Amino acid sequence: MKINNPKYVTYYIDSNFEFILTQIYKCYQKMLVDYDFIENNENKIKNKLYKDYLNNQNIREELGLNQYLFKTETGMIDENYNEKGYSDIEVIDLEGSFKSTDAFYIIECKRLDNKNSLNNKYITEGINRFIEEKYPTHYRVNGMLGFVVKSVDLKENSKHFSDFQLYQFIDNFDFSYRSNHITKTEKRITLYHLMLDFSGKIK
């Protein structure tokens, strides 16, 4: 699909990313059914999501994800050829209109519980990596997954993140948000946030 009218570019980007996140949410729902327990480890949760679902051809076909390539732990290289960070999940739209090696979405994953320590890490080691441009924002839209590992009032906990705005785009899911930020080089970016509750499966 080729987009010629700039008026529709932002709509296309947002709708495309919302579709990706909706399918990730469906993978999360499958995880709750498929696993008897899940280790309380950010990388293990992310790697299960990636290996068993986002990179599983049967699941990809079922959820209409064949046009997207998911990669994990991709190194970000700065102008001095140093690694400045590793993205948790990188998403490339193989059929998208924006043909560039820089044209991909990034999804950062962070655990959350009922303590401020992980809430703070969600900001300092998550949101701030986009603001400080450790992660690129080609589309100016990226996302974060909050892996909730202990029982918590999610609506109350979301108040810890002052920039969050409730933004419901997934059917029957109440814990999706968006936040808007200005990066260090004054780019306007949007982050989507999904709070995925794994607490009942954590051992």
Q: Could you provide a short overview of the structure?
A:
Helices cover 32% and strands 28% of the residues. The chain has 203 residues and is an alpha/beta fold.
Describe the structure.
- This protein is α/β, with parallel strands linked by helices and 203 residues long.
- 32% of the residues lie in helices and 28% in strands.
- It has helices at residues 9-34, 42-54, 57-62, 116-131, 154-157; strands spanning 68-77, 83-93, 105-112, 141-148, 165-166, 176-182, 188-197.
- A seven-stranded mixed beta sheet has the order 1-2-3-4-7-6-5, with helices on both faces.
Tell me the number of helical segments per DSSP (H or I, 4 or more residues long). 5
Order of helices and strands: HHHEEEHEHEEE
Spans of at least 5 consecutive residues with low confidence: 1-6
Roughly what percent helix?
25-40%
Overall residue-averaged pLDDT value: 89
Strand tally? 7
Whole-number count of domains = 1
How far from one another are the termini?
A: 45 Å
Q: Give a short account of the largest sheet.
A: 7 strands, mixed
Strand order of the largest sheet: 1-2-3-4-7-6-5
Portion in strands? 25-35%
> What class, by secondary structure content?
alpha/beta
Radius of gyration: 16 Å
Shape: globular
